[in-house]
Amino acid sequence: AQSVSQHNHHVILSEAASLELGCNYSYGGTVNLFWYVQYPGQHLQLLLKYFSGDPLVKGIKGFEAEFIKSKFSFNLRKPSVQWSDTAEYFCAVIRRHSGGGADGLTFGKGTHLIIQP
Amino acid sequence: GAGVSQSPRYKVAKRGQDVALRCDPISGHVSLFWYQQALGQGPEFLTYFQNEAQLDKSGLPSDRFFAERPEGSVSTLKIQRTQQEDSAVYLCASKLKAPGQGRNEQYFGPGTRLTVT
Fold first, then answer.
1. Any idea what the CATH number is for the domain that residue A31 is in?
2. Residue B70 per-residue DSSP state
3. Which of A95, A103, A109 sits opposite B41 (nearest CB)?
4. Beta A111-116 vs A10-14: how paired, if at all?
5. Interface of A with B in 77-96 (CB under 8 A)
6. Is the predicted pLDDT of residue B43 greater than 80, yes or no?
7. B104: confidence class by pLDDT, cuts 50, 70, 90
């Protein structure tokens, strides 16, 4: 079965610091990758997605992620974080079932990011 | 409405009671997903509908869990004889097309927080 690993469960940064959140996945075939964010009291929202093409993907709010196939990684980055980036961040891969098709998402356990003013 | 809605937002049930959780997807969305999110964890896939057809229910944890989407729009997740381990946030997501048809994303609702006492 596929799995998604997020290495840091809690990250605390100061404003203007650079951010990199790690994500590794286990599936060896074609992958579609996502980063979702959940701000306090709000529902999950898509930050960015990768399907194919340029492995450097730009998302909303200045976030970007790089797909490195050889490392099975899809790390999330932001050059300068803001207090408003405090949230829970989830990496996810499209779930592939035994029939070879794809349907839902397999999520990592999440990274709780706290930005201190 | 503009987004996915779920009701109730909070539900407290005594152990052994049956509960029903409702999801209203975005109008016209073909795909509908249910996820279970335990405290401190990422969402875990439960089941998937394409229109009214339940194409994958491999994530349902036991036969006490049942989902339906009879007219291809609103969906209900029912849990019979609730147990304490069922306490979690239940998330619904919808997607415009079926998997493999376009690079569209899943839109998540706010979730229903179920507490079994």
1. 2.60.40.10
2. T
3. A109
4. parallel
5. 90, 92, 94-95
6. yes
7. confident
